[in-house]
TrEMBL record:
The keyword Phosphoprotein does not apply. Gene3D superfamilies: FAD/NAD(P)-binding domain (3.50.50.60). The keyword Flavoprotein does not apply. This is 2-polyprenyl-6-methoxyphenol hydroxylase-like FAD-dependent oxidoreductase. PANTHER family: MONOOXYGENASE (PTHR13789), PUTATIVE (AFU_ORTHOLOGUE AFUA_6G14510)-RELATED (PTHR13789:SF309). Keywords: Monooxygenase, Oxidoreductase. GO terms for molecular function: FAD binding; monooxygenase activity. Residues 253-314 form the FAD-binding domain.
Amino acid sequence: MSASNKIAVVGAGIGGFAVASMLADQGHDVTVFDQFDAPRPVGSGLVIQPIGQAVLDCVGAGDLARAKGNFITRMLGHVEPSGRRVLDVHYDRRHGQQRGLAIHRASLLDALFVASKTRDLRLISSAEIVKAGGGMLYAADGQSFGPFDLIIDSAGAGSPLSPIASRPLAYGAIWGTVDWPETDLPPDYLSQCYRRADRMVGVLPIGTLPGDDTPKAAVFWSMPRDGHAAWQERGLDAWRDEATALWPAFAPFADQITAANQMTMARYTHGTLRKPYGDGVVHIGDAAHRASPQLGQGANMALLDALALARAVSVASLDRAPALYAKARRWHVWAFQAMSAAFTPQYQSDSTFLPKLRDYVMFPVSQIPPAPSVLTQIVRGTILPPTGRLTHVGTPNFRENSPASTAV
């Protein structure tokens, strides 16, 4: 184990709490900074893939997350008006042991926050960090903090510390959370419906929220990134009519949306830092790489970044660990960025050709062995070793007694 160091983590989010907990377990002096007065989520539901669940187990948050989340066994999408399947991926058709964990961001963040409180680390809230340099952090109100031996930027897509240049994607989505109603939709499926590639509506059963035992669903509706104002002007009645005409099974979910502010607009960008470190700062999660959520890997990538960085710090000096982390994550990140760039326009774009390619070529081929197995590995996030040569690094303080801690 490396000697104890002073480490700052900017951003009390998924990757931030995960890396802070693992570094605290190694005996480092860790301080987490966040701009809010208390840790809070941004967004609705997401899916933690099996490799991400293993990282949650490493930090002791796995059981808490599973208690609030909902297991997903299949991703199923069809196109209207034909009803033809155009997406069908099983997590583990043969054994049923590998499953995605659908969960609301609030429940996931709560699990990570509770786990972090079992460690000897500090959380400084209401600290809007705007600059870093020379081992120091500088806040918007003029305060400065440090010096630190290492600064970890986990401040997300809006990080002021990240030099990433990303391109905006043509389509985004509105997201909301509703109660799980009486419905024929399977409670263990991510269900989606498409019209060509310019309309996509989906339902994800996400378990329960902190302090609430009512089963919930995340619902989403695809739209151009500049289409939110027009959607608001049309009114909810027009949207509900359109959505339920496209997919009648969506009606009991849409009926619960009675105010426009129940749906939040999410706009996406695509980009990757070629070198996710420099000047004593290392970037993880969305601060290092951004993509469409189409493959459901965003939160998992942040968790894997956290794991790789913590493992790098455990075996190398702080001046070498960032480069070791970047090398360990390079190919896994590259592969999923490439696949996201290739797949997203087939489901979210104005193209008329790509949906036909998806429906009449890509999907039929995807059902011919060994393609289903490859798709399953893509969804699970295991198409390449997620932490490179650090996958088998011994890390006794990463709570290896957890049943899933050796899975990544």
